[in-house]
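User:
Note these C-alpha cells:
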Amino acid sequence: MRAVIIDNEPKVRASLVGLLELYCPTISIVGEAESCSSGRDLIEKYQPEVIFLDIEMDDGTGIDLVRSYPRIHGHVIFITAHDKYAVDAFRCSALDFLLKPVDPDDLVRAVGKAEMSKSANHLQQQIDVLEQYMSQKKDPDAKIVLSDSESIYLIRISEILWCCAEGSYTRFVLEDGSEILVSKNLKFYESLLDPEQFIRTHHSYLVNVNHIKRFERSEGGMVVMDNGGILPVSVRKKDNLMQVLKNWNNATDINL
C-alpha cells in the first residue's frame, strides 16, 4: 500500500520509516512532508492509501488538514503525544492513532486495520466526534463511534440504554430498539464513558442511569429500564448504584 508521512519532526519520520521497513513490508512510503500545507500537496499528488498524520505541526494540526481537504480517501493514522484525555477522545471517535514514540506492535496493528478499513467515508464525521471530546466540554449531543463487521455507526451517547459484555465483545442496546455488537470488551467502554452517567450494576452490565426507570429490591436487586428491560444488580455493585441514584439530580422519580 502506498503511504505518506506528515510530521514536523524529522526524527519521528525517520523512526517511522525504519519501523515500517522492518515490520510492515506491505507499506511503501512514497513521500514525506513536515507541515499541513506541504502534506496536503503530498496527498494531492500521490493519493496514498495510508496517511500517517501528526496532530501538532507548525502551521496547524492534522485535524485542520483533514477538515480543509475532505477529498481524502486514504486511511488516516494520527500520530500524537501521550495524553490520557486525547487518547480517550481518539478511542471514542474510533480514529486510528499511534502514540509517540511509536511502538512496533501498535504500528503493526494500525497497518493491519488500514488494510481492512472501511472508515474513509466516515472520516469527517469521526473528526466531529474527536473535536467534541478534545474541546473538553460536556455536550448533551456528544457521540461515540461504534463499528461492527458491516458498518460504522455514529451514536449519541445519550441514546445508549446499556452495554452488555459478551465475552471479549460488547453489545450496545439503544433507545430506538437497535443493538450493535462491537469487538471491544466492556472494560474498554467503561473507561471511556462518563462514570457519572454510566455505572456498572453487574460484571456484565454498564448502565446509563438516565434510562433507569426504577430499582427493585426483590431477588437480590434489579433495575428496570425505560424500554422495559430488566437488568441484574450484583451484591458488590448495589451500594455504588444506590449512592449514585441518591446523588443524581433527577433521581426524585426513582423508587429507592
DSSP finds eight helices and 17 strands in the chain. The chain has a mean pLDDT of 85.
